[in-house]
Specification:
The protein has two domains: 1-55, Arc Repressor Mutant, subunit A (Orthogonal Bundle), CATH 1.10.10; 57-197, Tetracycline Repressor, domain 2 (Orthogonal Bundle), CATH 1.10.357.10. It has nine helices and no strands. It has helices at residues 8-30, 37-44, 48-52, 58-81, 86-98, 101-117, 122-147, 155-175, 184-197. Helix 8 runs antiparallel to helix 9. The radius of gyration is 20 Å and the shape is elongated. It starts with 7 loop residues before the first helix and ends in a 7-residue tail after the last helix. 19% of the residues are buried. InterPro entries: Homeodomain-like_sf, HTH-type_TetR-like_transc_reg, HTH_TetR, Tet_transcr_reg_TetR-rel_C_sf, TetR_C_31. Keywords: DNA-binding, Transcription, Transcription regulation. GO terms for molecular function: DNA-binding transcription factor activity; transcription cis-regulatory region binding.
Length: 204
């Protein structure tokens, strides 16, 4: 059975995704400023013209890369968080990501540095971070609703703690692999949630 030929739109999507994947790899290795359009295109197996046929410039590619990667991760984690035994499922997810932790942290750090150096990019990064924070907030509200209790502080504030803690713990995992396990983020989140769920709120 012969493979069906891709349509023009499918070919274009495939080209864009290959360019995005190459950019993610090169940004993690060399930084956003250290990877040129030509290098991204060559690594993906295309010409400079193919790059500009899909993206107006590198800035546009950075924005799409940010949105693609954060959306993909958020979809995966959101599905896990609403399923059965979420903490155990999240442990498996983090263990799977552990094999590429250095690359993931490098890319995330590069996107943060890009936002620092390019203020016009900050609202887009903030928007994606807000989506993640809202997901954490919804998960925390759901956990307290199941208990029929109120959180000891606004759920959005608790979500900010969890979200910020995740970044810090992942850097510690990278720096101290012998002392910090792949489960550290989930262990910390579970510890906090257990204590918060058992802390009487001011309204109780």
């Amino acid at each position: 059975m012969q493979n069906q030929r891709l349509s023009r739109s499918e070919q274009r999507l495939q080209t864009r995704n290959r360019l995005l994947d190459s950019a993610a790899t090169l940004f993690a290795e060399r930084g956003v400023n250290g990877a040129s359009v030509e290098q991204i295109a060559e690594d993906a197996g295309f010409s400079r013209g193919a790059f500009y046929g899909n993206f107006a410039n590198k800035h546009e590619l950075v924005i799409e890369l940010l949105e693609q990667r954060t959306s993909r991760e958020l979809d995966e984690v959101s599905e896990i968080a609403t399923g059965p035994a979420p903490f155990e499922a999240l442990r498996e997810w983090h263990r799977g990501r552990a094999g590429n932790l250095d690359g993931w942290l490098s890319l995330r750090t590069e996107l943060l540095l890009y936002a620092i150096r390019n203020p016009e990019f900050r609202p887009r990064l903030a928007e994606r971070e807000r989506v993640a924070l809202d997901a954490h907030t919804s998960s925390i509200e759901h956990a307290f609703a199941e208990r029929g209790t109120e959180p000891p502080a606004p759920a959005a504030f608790l979500a900010l703690i969890v979200h910020a803690l995740e970044d810090g713990l992942l850097f510690q995992r990278m720096l101290h692999p012998d002392d910090v396990t792949d489960d550290i983020v989930v262990d910390a989140a579970e510890f906090l949630m257990t204590n918060w769920l058992n802390t009487p709120s001011d309204s109780q």
